[in-house]
Design brief:
The termini are far apart. Helix content is 70%, strand content 7%. It has helices at residues 2-23, 30-137, 141-199, 209-215, 220-229, 249-265, 270-299, 306-314, 325-343, 347-355, 371-381, 386-393, 403-417, 426-441, 469-486, and strands at residues 200-204, 232-234, 241-245, 319-320, 323-324, 446-452, 457-462, 494-498. It has five domains: 2-128, no CATH class; 139-200; 205-286, Ribosomal Protein S8, Chain: A, domain 1, CATH 3.30.1370.10; 300-417, Orthogonal Bundle (Hypothetical protein af1432), CATH 1.10.3210.10; 426-498, GMP Synthetase, Chain A, domain 3 (2-Layer Sandwich). Strands 1-3-2 form a three-stranded antiparallel beta sheet. Strands 6-7-8 form a three-stranded mixed beta sheet, covered by helices on one side. It has a two-stranded antiparallel ribbon with strand order 4-5. Helix 5 (220-229) runs parallel beside helix 7 (270-299) and helix 9 (325-343) packs antiparallel against helix 10 (347-355). It has 508 residues and is mainly alpha-helical. It is flat and about 190 Å long. It is built from 15 helices and eight strands. The relative contact order is 0.03.
Length: 508
């Protein structure tokens, strides 16, 4: 509006200026002056007309703005009214729910009162019945006392039996806890040497000066090596020796090769360490692939997925009871094939199952669970046939779905039982044999017991006069069960009970 007024004022001023200029001309030209005067009046009139039009337009615009504002205000008021109505409705609903809950509580209270009254009536009725029974029974004091004593004995026996069950359950729980503690303690006390043996690698150095170079300024070199390989490098007072510790044998081998290359090169710095680690990784990957491929060539198996061949090659750095897992797998595969050929089964299926039966051990440090189940899932993932898959899954099981699965389990047991296949300390070996013989001789009627086949079989000689053939068969089952419960052993142990009767006569 202000802009319009300013515009009209400027227009009027311009008209006045024009008039002034016209009047400033020569008065001698009277006609021109008169015309100019008329022209000026026309311009002024036109300006006034334009001003009125603009003023009307501005008023109309103001009216429209006022109308829009009033409409918007009305809509806002309507929306507020609607929200207020909704809030009121919700409040009413909430009040109705509260009233319903209160009614329900009052109903429950009434029902509880009725129940209490019924209970009281039941107690009164019970007392009346008891009194009537006493009158009908017409018992003497001694008879009643005996009856009460007998009833008390029965209740005491019941309570004693229940308490015995509770105590048995409690003691069983405690026994399980104590067993876990004992096992944990045994592992803590006895597993140190074993863990140290299978998780460490020793690298020889030319001199002790090399230890300082391996450590580097402020430990940069050793930190770089440990971060790149994922191992722990132990540098102690042992002369000219560095220990590499890690549960992953592949990482440990990479670190060992890297250290050997660095010592041979002599240039030990973070950049050089990184270069040597990359070279060692490439060498190990190539070695793993060649080992897996060579294993398939040796057993005559083809068509395996490259990932399976790679995992198979990783078994080159895995050991179980001192036995190389890859060599064991090759041996089981060949045995499985031979057994399948003799039994008329599928030779290739048996070979694949035997070759891959321990494939899960390549990932047992990464995936939790039994290695048989892990290996079976890996084989299934990479397209191994069903029969070979069952052989991998069931090679430690007593039940087998296919004949090839049974043959793989048999070949695994044969390979593990081979003398010299699995290494352990002499003390542990002798102790295991003595424990096995001790379990067998703990039964009555046993004369002698001999552990043979590197502890994979025990032969029990019984007294023929004390035990019959039926008792001897039962004894074999009992010994096998006690061995399962009391001893820890890999694979399976065969129990053979021998009962021999000799009759000797002399002809004279």
């Amino acid at each position: 509006m202000r802009i319009i007024i300013v515009f009209l004022s400027a227009l009027a001023a311009a008209g006045k200026e024009v008039v002034a200029r016209l009047f400033g001309r020569s008065k001698a030209d009277g006609t021109q002056t008169l015309e100019a005067s008329e022209t000026a009046k026309g311009i002024i009139a036109q300006g006034e007309e334009e001003r009125r039009k603009l003023l009307l337009a501005a008023q109309e615009e103001v009216l429209n703005l006022r109308t829009d504002a009033e409409r918007e205000l009305k809509e806002n008021r309507q929306e507020l009214n609607r929200q207020e109505r909704r809030y009121l409705q919700r409040e009413e609903q909430l009040e109705r729910k509260i009233e319903a809950q209160e009614d329900q509580q009052r109903g429950l209270a009434a029902k509880e009162a009725v129940a209490q009254e019924a209970l009281k009536e039941a107690e009164d009725l019970k007392a009346q019945q008891r009194k009537a029974l006493e009158e009908i029974a017409n018992l003497t004091i001694d008879e009643a006392r005996q009856h009460v004593v007998k009833r008390g004995e029965e209740e005491a026996q019941h309570d004693l039996a229940r308490r015995h069950y509770e105590l048995e359950k409690e003691f069983q729980t405690r026994a399980d806890e104590n067993a876990r503690k004992i096992i944990s303690t045994a592992i803590n006390r006895l597993a140190t040497d074993v863990v140290s043996e299978i998780t460490t690698t020793v690298v020889s150095l030319p001199n002790d000066e090399m230890k300082g170079r391996l450590i580097g300024r402020e430990g940069r070199n050793i930190r770089t090596l440990e971060s790149l390989t994922g191992v722990d490098v132990i540098i102690d007072d042992t002369p000219e020796v560095v220990t590499v510790s890690c549960f992953d044998p592949v990482r440990r081998e990479i670190a060992r090769l890297s250290l050997q290359k660095l010592v041979a090169d002599g240039r030990i710095q973070p950049a050089r360490i990184e270069d040597m680690v990359h070279k060692a990784q490439a060498e190990i990957e190539q070695t793993i692939w060649k080992a897996g491929e060579q294993a398939t060539f040796e057993v005559g198996v083809s068509g395996l997925d490259p990932e399976l061949i790679k995992l198979l090659g990783q078994l080159k750095y895995r050991y179980s009871y001192g036995e190389n897992v890859l060599k064991h797998s090759i041996e089981v595969s060949l045995l499985s094939g031979m057994l399948a050929a003799e039994a008329g089964a599928n030779v290739m299926v048996a070979k694949i199952g035997g070759l891959l039966h321990d494939i899960g051990k390549a990932l047992t440090h990464e995936i939790s669970g039994p290695h048989a189940e892990i290996g079976a899932e890996i084989a299934k993932k990479y397209g191994v046939n069903h029969s070979s898959y069952r052989g991998i899954l069931e090679h430690h099981s007593d039940e087998h779905e296919t004949i090839e699965s049974f043959l793989v389990a048999s070949a695994d047991a044969i390979s593990a039982a081979r003398p010299g296949a699995r290494k352990e300390s002499l003390e542990l070996y002798v102790k295991r044999l003595r424990d096995l013989e001790g379990v067998a001789t703990s039964f009555s009627g046993v004369e002698r017991a001999f552990a043979i086949q590197a502890g994979r079989e025990v032969r029990v000689m019984v007294k023929p006069d004390d035990l019959g053939d039926v008792e001897a068969a039962s004894l074999a089952r009992n010994i096998a069960k006690k061995v399962e419960d009391d001893l820890v052993f890999p694979g399976q142990i065969k129990v053979t009970v021998i009962r021999e009767t000799r009759s000797v006569e002399y002809a004279k």
